[in-house]
Specification:
homodimer, 224 residues, alpha+beta, Glutaredoxin, Glutathione S-transferase Yfyf (Class Pi), Chain A, domain 2, four-stranded mixed sheet, Glutathione-S-Trfase_C_sf (chains A, B), transferase (chains A, B), Thioredoxin-like_sf (chains A, B)
Chain lengths: 224, 224
């Protein structure tokens, strides 16, 4: 039996980030559904392992963790010799390469995540939930995301992936939001119309790990 | 001469996070001012080391990095044997303790940072810059921050610091925004009125490293 357990629905962007990382590292895991519509993420038992009442939560033997990017870092270090061993930079690249990964992982977390998450909420989720869209917020977020992607466009003209010549956690961490932006909104062109970003997106979205996550999402998706 | 250089004004919250980390680690550094009012952070030379045109940028010998939390992680690992050696968890605590630090550092980055930064912009900066405040946004951010601090209140009832019994990078990373919230707005009570959070704030804000950062900020502050 797998010692690793992920709690949360694969449709969640943060959950799917952790799943992609586990699949890259070739680590078996158990996925425990958390029915957010029924408020299971706010239950006392769940709050013991995720006090903010968010997904995912994560367990490895007796260690529990929350926050998807912290969980991914843990997986990479705890299982350094398993599966893809480049996710935190090549071993021979030492600390410098590790911190190039950290730098672009933080760029995702600080610069890419907020405007892309806002666009997903406004363009993909709000209509399904019968909520009113905020056109000013959509325009503002699109502008912010475009500026971030302009920096990525330049960077990805210099190197194949964000942190260098290898696919790392920095690239992986962009998959969940980018996937929905391209496949569930009409603003995918923000990514696909930029030459280098589009080339990068095509490469990272075709990784076996991510294709498997998308299959898990589709198996759980509500009928459209 | 110091091999480490930080580019940016100490009044910036992200710059001051890096300065506090360097002071905890007892590492000499050179601080190079970046005059943001004159747009120096958008100059071609600066964009070479910080392509988003934000502060801080960081150099150690020939390595350059951006993103304050990535820089702090680099400092802790690159100078593991210098100064405070607990910032990423006690050595004997191994990976598990390191990832408790990561987990709460991510909580700061994902949950605490946005509502506290918004409050600082709205309550402290907007009036000075003659910008109109947004009362709905202030109320929304205050509500979000209160919920985050309720989780901290419970956590800090169980342990002296966020990640355990030692002051770590997770605590340090909260200093910049908390300092301005307490000292430059009328909403400091969000922090000081909570028993455990208030006790924690008093302890972390009195660290020699942070007092030195505040001195550096006051030396650079515009006349009030």
């Amino acid at each position: 039996m797998a010692s690793v357990t992920v709690y949360g629905p694969p449709l969640s962007t943060a959950v799917s980030r952790v799943l992609a990382c586990l699949l890259e590292k070739d680590i078996q895991f158990q996925l425990v559904p958390v029915d957010m519509a029924k408020g299971q993420h706010k239950s006392p038992d769940f709050l013991k392992i995720q006090p903010f009442g968010q997904v995912p939560a994560f367990r490895d033997e007796s260690t529990t963790l929350f926050e998807s990017r912290a969980i991914c870092r843990y997986i990479c270090d705890q299982y350094a010799d398993r599966g893809n061993q480049m996710l935190m930079g090549r071993k021979e690249g030492g600390l410098v390469e590790r911190y190039w990964v950290e730098q672009w992982l933080e760029a995702e977390s600080q610069s890419f995540n907020t405007p892309s998450s806002t666009l997903l909420l406004q363009l993909a989720l709000a209509p399904r939930m019968g909520l009113k869209q905020d056109p000013a917020l959509i325009e503002q977020s699109e502008g912010k995301l475009a500026k971030v992607l302009d920096v990525y466009e330049q960077r990805l003209g210099e190197s194949r992936f964000l942190a260098g010549d290898e696919f790392t956690l920095a690239d992986l961490s962009h998959l969940p939001n980018s996937h929905y932006l391209v496949n569930a909104t009409d603003r995918g062109g923000l990514i696909t119309s930029r030459e280098n970003v589009g080339r990068w997106w095509e490469e990272i979205s075709l990784r076996e790990s991510w294709k498997k996550v998308v299959e898990m999402q589709q198996a759980k998706a509500p009928p459209s």
